[in-house]
Amino acid sequence: MQFNFEKLEVYRNAIDFADQIYKVTRLFPKEEIFGITNQIRRAAISISSNIAEGSSRGKKEFSHFLNISLGSSYECVPLLQLSQNLGYISPEVFIEMIEGLHRISAKLHALKNSLKS
Asked: Residue 7 and residue 82: Cα distance in Å, rounded?
């Protein structure tokens, strides 16, 4: 049996994104464990967590939680850029992760818009 939010494609995409972030950041230098590694992991997890928590609320509050999810997805962008600049991830991984964030943010916007009707 699933919770309703687990049926949302954007939720599943966000879980997959967080999974990718955890796998990629395992290779980051140990001195980054309390820096970029922690920050990007927290932001990535926040995307799906806020979808899940918000889904238990009314439309207005759910929309607010989706805004938080959007903010967390945007927070990942400069962290990924910095990770690439520092050589922690390749340009190919960076592009793949950014494309995933684009898909997630588009779906979050669409879900928010569906709550307005």
From this structure: 33
Between CA 9 and CA 53 the distance in angstroms is 16
Tell me the CATH number of domain 4-115, given options 1.20.1440.60, 1.10.10.10, 3.90.1170.20, 3.90.1150.10.
1.20.1440.60
The full DSSP string for 7-19 is G-HHHHHHHHHHH
With left for phi above 0 and alpha for psi between -120 and 50, is residue 43 left, alpha or beta?
A: alpha
- The residue type at 102: H
Q: What is the pLDDT of residues 73-117, one digit of tens each?
A: 999 999 999 999 999 999 999 999 999 999 999 999 999 999 986
